Amino acid sequence: MYADGVAVVAIVIPSAISPSARGRLQWAEYIDPRGSRNVTLSRSPCDFRGTDASGNSGPTVTAGGVSGDVYFTLGTPVFGYPEGKVAAGQTVYVNLRQPGGCGKSGSCNMVLGLSGF
Fold first, then answer.
1. Strand bridging mode 68-73 / 83-85
2. What is the Cα–Cα distance from 32 to 112, expressed in whole angstroms?
3. CA separation (Å) from 64 to 77, 82, 96?
4. What are 73-103's pLDDT values in tens digits?
5. Do 39 and 94 meet the contact criterion of CB atoms below 8 Å apart?
């Protein structure tokens, strides 16, 4: 990813999944100099509007930093975590934006991890 670049990860929530299922997408800088990112969980790709817990008029979760994670759940979101509610069969998007630079090269490589539990 380059300075001022955007990456979008589409996650399809399986239709046959436990109603208590949770997931997490983690990000971190990789090799290149540190650079902070803006991250959202939304029903729409490239959605960096203000947060709306219902998901109707903005992302359900907004987070950021050099590294971090965004959680999603079919149940009740856990208070204090950057966690949004999703539905079985739904496609949600984790949107990552790299504002500004990451050093002289302009390259802002990152590593992503996706897990369900």
1. parallel
2. 14
3. 18, 10, 9
4. 988 888 877 888 899 999 999 999 988 777 6
5. yes
Please say whether the beta carbons of 85 and 73 come within 8 A: yes
**C-alpha dist (Å) from residue 104 to 6, 13, 33, 98, 107:** 19, 39, 9, 15, 8
What's the CA angle centered on 3, arms 34 and 32, to 5 degrees?
Answer: 30
Give tens-digit pLDDT for 51-76: 998 888 999 999 988 899 999 998 88
Contact 21, 116 (CB under 8 A): yes
Strand partners, 94: 9, 41
Place of tokens 């907004």: 62
Cβ contact 75:84 at 8 Å: no
Instruction: Tell me the pTM.
Output: 0.86
Distances (CA, A) of 58 to 49, 53, 78, 91, 95: 5, 8, 19, 15, 12
The CA-based diameter of the chain, rounded to the nearest angstrom, is 47
